[in-house]
Amino acid sequence: MSMIQVQDLTKAYGKKPILNKINVSVNKGSIYGLLGSNGAGKTTLLKMMAGVLKQDKGSVLINNQAVFENTVNKQQIIFIPDQPYYFPQYTVKQMAQFYAATYPSWSQERFDKLQQVLNLDLKSKVQQFSKGMQRQVSFWLALSAMPNYLILDEPFDGLDAVVRKKIKNLIVNDVAEREMTVIVSSHNLREVEDICDYIGILHNGKFLLEKDLDDLKSDIHKVQVAFKEEPAAEFYSTFQILHQEKRGSVYQFIIKGERDVVDQAFSQEAPLVYDLLPLTLEEIFVYEMEGVGYAIENILV
Ligand SMILES: Nc1ncnc2c1ncn2[C@@H]1O[C@H](COP(=O)(O)OP(=O)(O)OP(=O)(O)O)[C@@H](O)[C@H]1O
Q: ipTM of this model?
């Protein structure tokens, strides 16, 4: 079931078009990774999904209701912007009281438990924390509010590896245990590939590519093969070859198709060498994009 539905969403700042008829659906209890290079419009899209920025055209529905200025919906959504905001002079505890008053689903028990995980001082003023600690506080508050929807703009920037892992685990647990729905933006595939179920790449105001990662991983293979005799031309029409190289007598193919079909087709050619290897997600994206004629190196480095 799709819980967040974005239809024909269009936005310009002044005369500068940013998003052009964007469509996205995010299923309940899934994690959607929104990728794009700097300035692609990720923040703009997330703000409209969170209902804090109004679109020019099109719609954003959460639970079948328009999200902009919808207070009932907003109590179920938490948006963590790329620079979290805290009231000046507020301690963590005071911020928590503010969240508790704002979100009916707030869980004090969760808040207390997370203190043990994150180990930050309740009585410190949040604005005096380091950038990474402030980010941790934003997760602490957000996850204690038990939102149904969590919208995260470049959330892992400035977090060290240990904290990053902790936070990712907490998010994935909430998704598994209470079907929280998450949208997370990043300019780097590697940063989010371990938690996302879906990935969408935003470029020039449109989605270049939108993929279910499970399908992707199971459907693309790297094959290294040496033939005794070159196969007939028909052989290559059995599946889709995204890329091929030849070194000496060894071919390397990147092939799209079911593994069984690929294995069977090659075994009929009685190859001298045959290896079918998994691809990294990064490789999959590079080959997929090659297929549609775009370069996306900047979000893969
Ligand atoms: N308030 C604004 N007024 C005018 N232009 C804006 C405004 N906010 C963003 N833009 C422009 O819209 C484009 C998209 O910006 P946005 O912040 O959505 O991109 P992004 O994908 O989040 O980028 P980054 O990865 O750098 O954060 C940029 O060209 C930016 O200059």
A: 0.95
